[in-house]
Amino acid sequence: MTAARGLATKREPQTPHQFEVCIVGSGAGAGPIAYELARAGIDVVVLEKGDWYTEQDFVKDEQLPRHRVFRSRFDEERHVLELPDGEGGWRRETTAQFWGGNIVGGASNFMSGYFHRLKPTDFRLASIYGVIPGSNTVDWPISYEELEPYYTKVEQLVGVSGRVVQHPHLEPRSTPDFPFVPTVEHPIAARFDNACEALKLNPLPMARAILSRPFNGRMSCEYSGYCGSYGCHSGAKGSSRAALLNHAVASGHCRIIPRAKVYRLNTDSKGRVSSADYFDAKGESRRIQAKIFVVACYAIESARLLLASTGEKHPKGIGNRHGQVGKNLHCCAGGTGHGVFKLDKLSAETARGLKQRGPFFNRALQDWYVIDDKAAFDKPVKGGTLDFVFDPPSPTSEANALKWQEGNLLWGTPFKQKLKAHFTQSRDFKFEVFCDWLTHDECFVSLDDEEKDKWGQPVAKVRAGFHPHDLKVAQYLIDRGVEVMQAMGADEVWGNVFSDPTANLVAGGCRFGVDPRTSVLDPDCRVHDCDNLYVTDGAFMPNGGSVTPTFTIYANAFRVADKLLGRLKQA
Amino acid sequence: MATEYAFESGLTRRAFLAGSGAAAMLLAAKPQLSWADTEFSITTRPQGFDVINRAIIEAVQLHLFPDDGDGPSAKDLNAYRYLLWAIEDPDNRIDEDRQFILQGAAWLEDWADTQRGRSFLVMSWEEQDALLKEIAKSRAGENWLSLLLYYLIEALTLDPLYGGNPDEIGWRWLEHQPGFPRPKAGKSYLDF
Are residues B187 and A57, on separate chains, in Cβ contact within 8 Å? Predict the structure, then answer.
């Protein structure tokens, strides 16, 4: 296909139906908007690039993630990624790593659903800790208190299971506890609790966006052990699709158009968005009109769409008057660690317990959410969260990793013995460290000059530089995780800090704020100089908090949905 | 020496990737093979591996995963038949694995001939083992074995639906607990 073919022309037939609100994307930032508006009787249309699947499609087959069945294909769509080359320059590659789930419901179909709220401190990093030189840290234009009711709403509507435990960094809550009791716990959790108590730490049951009992037409968790990176068969996982979009559609006021790839927002002489152009399943360009547009197609892609949508009033792209679109992108800084337990060293009963698959580890530590340790930092700094988790089962990938021994290929009986020992004689437990990825001038999205997607559109280029402060914080937290694993009696323990961007959990790029010169969105997540355009995925976040951002994306989208309801009711 | 040259120069894309890690860039640079004319499903039966190549590859697979009294052998895993099926997968066809595997079998025979003056197939187990260790010292040789092992592992741990791991023999040996619901005909990864 040539670049020009399929692009909209002036004479193009337009979709006759008039929608009040058009939403681009269907993940965590889109679902709450569609849900709230449709249920209030407002006609919304959701344009999703990928296909529409249901619970029945989510079989537990390692081939699905291996062949990236639910994600955009590298040969059709990719990103240009620029990483530090270690010599002060940048090395350029192309990647499909940022596609976290390109179907109705987006990446929320494949999340693990570790749902931590942000804390009041995350909204005021600049005021509390000061701006670290080289970073672009700002305070949020809203407070934790303004978002709190929406966290509560997510817990109830999307379904969050957990148990509140008092600890020094617990954020204020308007409800005493989660609406759903915790999911079933793995025996390792008790071992973890004992180790933490010995270390005088506060082991926390981790809240999960997974139903522990049936709710709203969804079944409770089946404990197949194939959760994160796999689609949920029972509907227990609180994906945007299962928890929200299905109900929005059932209301009769929400239409989802799958395989609709939006490539441009058209603006009128006043600078307002008049229509969206998308490629349909056949690759033909179609146009859709609405009164209000909401973009929520993943931080990188939302910035790309705004940058690609130039117009008379928006010569550099919508919202980009001050060159802010795509800027201040952030990932989750941190790293991972492992503790390996040799089962033959344990009692038969303990070993049997550790081998169980199905129940969740579900433990977290937030003792170092703020680090006040003069030995490491001369003043208090923002720290982070340690999540103790199981990697999703992928025996084929695990076995393949074992075939290398000190750089040489291992085969024959020695390889078989290594495989057997790994699978039957040991158990690997993992922890993940989440800390802030400081925003700065070398982490941003722009349009690439060379690479095009299969529709002939310029792809997003992600420059992903990191701030050295993040590595220092991450290392501090990795060391604490290693200490916990050791206290648990792991036979082998190690941890690594990452400076590469996370493949998922990317946010920012259209941050919200009061000052149009340093932000793209106003406090309601409306584009500063475009009255009828909102961005409601993770792009709005000035910083990600030291947790996975999905919970906050959901909560904020519910907050914006309320603003939209108010606006539409007035009109 | 001609044979050695063949090993050293015969780097396929995958062979090169093992060293460079730049998977994405190379895939982008490489022209896409046309596979649209071939229907690929879980019942596909590819042609073209003759009796000699089959014997060589089955023998090598047995060295990679021998019948050593502990766990299934390559033969028990149905590894050869699985390999023939899996290399026709559209992604794997783009990687040109089929060509590389056939080429490697020819190289192995060449090497056996020039080094020992005999076919790999008539050698004793110990002689075959020594020869495989020799070729593993070259990068292409190691990559060839690694690719065979890659598919063999798939035959060990993927769902039996795909032709390996018959009766869950691999899972039972590794005490692996599969998830549920399992894939079935009409719900394989090729059906999405």
Answer: yes
Interface of B with A in 43-72 (CB under 8 A): 63-66, 68, 70-71
What's the pLDDT tens digit per position in B10-69? 333 333 333 333 332 332 222 223 333 446 666 655 446 888 999 999 999 999 999 999
Residue A108 contacts residue A102 (beta carbons within 8 Å):
no
C-alpha distance from B40 to closest chain A C-alpha (Å): 14
Asked if B172 reaches chain A (Cβ–Cβ under 8 Å), the answer is no
Type of residue at A149: P
Contact between B189 and A63 using a beta-carbon 8 Å cutoff: yes
- The reply to whether A52 touches chain B by the CB within 8 Å rule is no
What is the Cα–Cα distance from A254 to A556, expressed in whole angstroms? Answer: 20
pLDDT tens sequence across A62-96: 999 999 999 999 999 999 999 999 999 999 999 99
Question: 0.90 cut: is pTM over it?
Answer: yes
CA separation for the pair A142, A123 (Å, rounded): 7
Nearest residue to B13 (alpha-carbon basis) of B34, B33, B27, B31? B27
Q: Are B32 and A76 in contact (CB under 8 A)?
A: no
- Strand ranges (E), chain B: none
Of chain B, the end-to-end C-alpha distance in Å amounts to: 49
Q: Hey, what domains does chain A have and what are their CATH numbers?
A: 19-570 (3.50.50.60)
- Quick check: B32 and A75 CB within 8 A? yes
Answer whether A393 touches B (CB < 8 Å): yes
| DSSP codes joined into one string, A435-495 | EE----TTEEEEEEEEEE-TTSPEEEEEEE---HHHHHHHHHHHHHHHHHHHHTT-SEEEE
Report the pLDDT value the prediction gives residue B42, as an integer from 0 to 100: 62
